[in-house]
Design a protein that fits this description.
single chain; 362 residues; alpha/beta; 7-stranded mixed beta sheet; 13 strands; binds nicotinamide-adenine-dinucleotide; binds zinc ion
Length: 362
């Protein structure tokens, strides 16, 4: 079966992303071919394993399976400790490898366990959500949450191999799938006019996870992210553009206790806010701003924001961890497909943009 290969450069070792329908079914052969660990430990969760466990167990015969409860609230150090315990009990050693089968939560957490167990064992990502396929599995960021905030403990730890199989997406809840599509739009607006044009052309087909176009769409996103993280693994510069929509997005998620919005949905609102700021500065034309908004809206309804006061969102944005040296780094689209990181966006501009896209006046 044809498969697409995207290579990622990393100080810790380059690695390929193999993309294609059925790639996960050939996991054992792929790991053998890439000489990844003779002893294999799958880390997944009961939701993913109920649906895909039989298939993945057949794809990785002899692997131990470690299941961690599902959900972002389990992405913490206690779950990582459970993974260590299971590894120790099974006698894992330096030659062992963790195969993370799940969404971004499993990938981040299992990845952090792999980065730290015995000071680092092999890691293979098998991302099963759209968000994990186009974003979380690429670039080597792994980590967990602390009670004080999201992703506060972590590492840059490249996987040895990423197996990206679009077949997983067919069992994803529709809302999870749509939430991932907003991150896809992010790549288009911030990094690639071609991708944006393609999304605009194919929006209706893209909302069907079984569509034949999904595989190449995922590949397009992986290529974009791979190029960016290969040039700036540790987010000293270029990688920051991937935070487009995320400054306001994170604030919106935090303000609603991470309950009302899926991450991608909050990012969608954040992109609208950023494009409003860019529009008022004349960085992006009214037509482009309208095109972005129209594409976001075509994917389906977003949770509403009218009851969320603009001032509260603004306060939380200023507390975001991307505030460096007292200035807020903010990614603005500068024409569709290019973006600019600025640190001089004022409260007045942000407030006006928030209100203009629909947040509460007070
Ligand atoms: N490391 C990075 O660079 C990076 C980038 C972006 C996001 N993240 C992290 O990713 C996490 C979010 O990831 P997510 O959106 O994938 O959420 P998730 O991992 O919670 O998955 C969403 C839900 O879908 C279920 N699921 C997964 N695959 C499925 C499938 N094929 N069929 C049916 N159900 C399935 C999961 O069990 C879960 O209930 C966050 O913790 C975020 O911090 C990391
Ligand atoms: Zn994101």
């Amino acid at each position: 079966m044809p498969q697409i290969r995207v290579d990622v450069r990393s100080a810790g070792g380059d690695y390929p992303i193999l993309i294609g329908g059925g790639v996960a079914d050939r996991a054992a052969q792929q790991l053998d071919e890439w000489r990844v660990g003779p002893r294999r430990f799958v880390v997944s969760n009961p939701v993913v394993w109920r649906i895909h466990g039989e298939r993945m167990a057949a794809a990785l015969p002899g692997a131990d399976v470690i299941l961690i409860p599902d959900g972002e609230r389990h992405k913490h150090l206690a779950s990582v400790a459970r993974i260590y315990d299971a590894l120790v009990r099974a006698g894992a050693d330096r030659g062992s490898v963790i195969v993370a089968v799940g969404g971004g939560v499993i990938g981040d957490m299992a990845g952090f366990a792999a980065a730290t167990f015995l000071r680092g064992i092999g890691l293979v990502q098998v991302p099963t959500t759209l968000l994990a396929q186009v974003d979380a599995s690429v670039g080597g960021k792994v980590g967990v949450n602390l009670p004080a905030g999201k992703n506060l403990v972590g590492a840059f730890y490249p996987p040895r191999l990423v197996l990206t199989d679009p077949v997983f997406l067919q069992t994803l809840p529709r809302r999870e799938y749509r939430a991932g599509l907003y991150e896809v739009i992010k790549y288009g607006v911030a990094c690639s006019a071609d991708l944006f044009a393609r999304l605009d052309r194919e929006a209706e087909r893209l909302t069907d996870p079984a569509s034949a176009v999904i595989e190449s769409l995922v590949a397009d996103c992986c290529r974009i992210k791979a190029a960016i993280v290969s040039a700036d693994e540790r987010e000293a510069g270029g990688r920051r553009v991937l935070n487009f929509g995320h400054t306001a997005g994170h604030a919106i998620e935090a303000l609603t206790g991470y309950r009302r919005f899926r991450h991608g949905e909050a990012v969608a609102w954040g992109m609208l806010v950023a494009s409003e700021v860019a529009g008022s500065r004349g960085l992006i034309s009214d037509d482009e701003s309208r095109a972005l908004k129209a594409l976001v809206m075509r994917l389906g309804p977003l949770p509403l924001v009218a009851d969320l006061p603009a001032d509260r969102v603004l306060d939380l944005m200023k507390r975001d961890k991307k505030v460096v040296d007292g200035s807020l780094h903010f990614v603005l689209p500068a024409a569709i497909g290019t973006s600019r990181v600025v640190d001089d966006v004022t409260d007045v501009e942000l407030r006006a943009a928030l209100v203009s896209v629909g947040f509460g006046q007070n």
